[in-house]
Amino acid sequence: MKVKGVNLGNWLVLEKWMSPALFDGTTAEDEYWLPRQLSKAVYEARINVHRSEYITERDFVTIKSWGMNAVRIPVPYFIFGDREPFIGCIRELDQAFNWAEKYGLKILIDLHTAPEGQNGSDNGGICGVCKWAQNPDEVEFELTVLERLAERYKTREGLWGIEILNEPALESIWEMFGMQQRYPPVDLKMAKGSKGISHKFIRQFYKDAYERIRKHMPEDKYVVFHDGFELKAWKDFMQEDKYKNVVLDTHQYLMMAEMAGCKQTIEGYLKYIKEHFLKDIEEMQQYFPVICGEWCLFNSLACGFDTKGGQTVLNGLEGASVETLTSEQKMEIYKTIGRAQLEAWNKGSGYFYWSYKLLTDTVNTSGWIGWDSWDLGRCVDFGWFPLNYENESIIIH
Question: Which of 117, 121, 189, 384 would staple 334 via disulfide (CB 3.0–4.6 Å)?
Answer without folding.
Answer: 384
